Amino acid sequence: MTASQITILLVLGCGMLILLAVLAGLILSNTNSLPNTLPIAPISNPTSSSPTHSPQLPTVVVGDYIVGTWLDNWAVPCTITIKKISGTYEMTRLYSDGSGETKTLTVQIVDGIERLIEHPDSPAGDYMVILNNGNLAFYDNEGFIYENYPYDGYAKEIDTLVPTFTPTLKPTSTPTSIIITLQGGDIGRGWFNDDHRISLLSVYRTESLDGVKPFGEWNGGHEAGFTQFLVVELQFDRFTPGFDDYEMSGFWLWAYTDDGYREYQADQYLYKSLNMIRVNYQETVREIIAFEVTPESHNFIMCYHAGIAVAPSNKIVNECGSTGYQFKFGD
């Protein structure tokens, strides 16, 4: 082989090597451009992280606790305490004679409002709601009935007076006596709202009613110095469709001194009045109640289903006008 032939072979060999190198580069380039079939994992940054969004959980009170205590003067005066024990509401009523009762309440959520039900089978649909202001409100199928205000510690310094019921006794007959008319205070005025009104028409004193003299058991009646009836005439009006029921024995009267000290709570005599009356739409009803008082008493406060509060000194510190109907009057 001549020198020129060797040179040609070397040139061809180098060309082949260059060609092979180019082909290898193209193959590697195509391989790196193939799509990745595995999911791409995010790269975590130990110094920072994206915020995590989760549902906002409500604040929950853990354990058993007292929800609230309220003074209830609606029917039989008592204090109401509601507790939440193991997720269940329990209500305790404590009466003025020291007796009491505890019941488990049923809970029903209606339009986001928690209803507490004492009698689930009641046809009237009675239930309670603890309002945002802390008051305990009572409702039935007809709507709102009344509400109680929180009992916030009066028991430590103030005795809250709650009336008891006068038993029916046999009256003693006496001759007809004269009438002494009272004029002061709220006589001739009325409490009202859009639905109804209670008006105090007149008040007078007398020593007997149809031959009957005071005979009450609380204060001893005529023999204990309660020798007069204080006769109260009320008028009830209903302005809107529907009706109102009034429990006449729910009107309570206290006598007090000129400087605001309680003297006594008066015995009641439902003179010519039913215990329960109903006032229908556009109807006017008049009723008379009598209370047994002493001739020496000259200032009176009458409440409907609400009590007064007095300090240990008998000073009146809370009247009933803030929780119900109230009339003040005197000689």
- Cα-atom radius of gyration: 42 Å
- Our measurement of the CA-to-CA distance between the termini, rounded to an integer number of angstroms, reads 156 Å
Low-confidence stretches at least 5 residues in length (pLDDT < 50)? Answer: 26-63, 153-174
Largest sheet: 6 strands, antiparallel
Strand and helix order = HEEEEEEEEEHEEEEEEEEEEEEEEEEE
Shape: globular
Report the CATH C-level class of the largest domain: Mainly Beta
Structural class: mainly beta
How many beta strands in the DSSP annotation? 26
Please characterize this protein's 3D structure.
- There is one protein chain.
- This protein has 331 residues and is mainly beta.
- It folds into two domains: 65-152, Lipocalin (Beta Barrel), CATH 2.40.128; 159-330, Immunoglobulin-like (Sandwich).
- Helix content is 10%, strand content 41%.
- It contains two helices and 26 strands.
- A hairpin with a 5-residue loop joins strand 24 and strand 25.
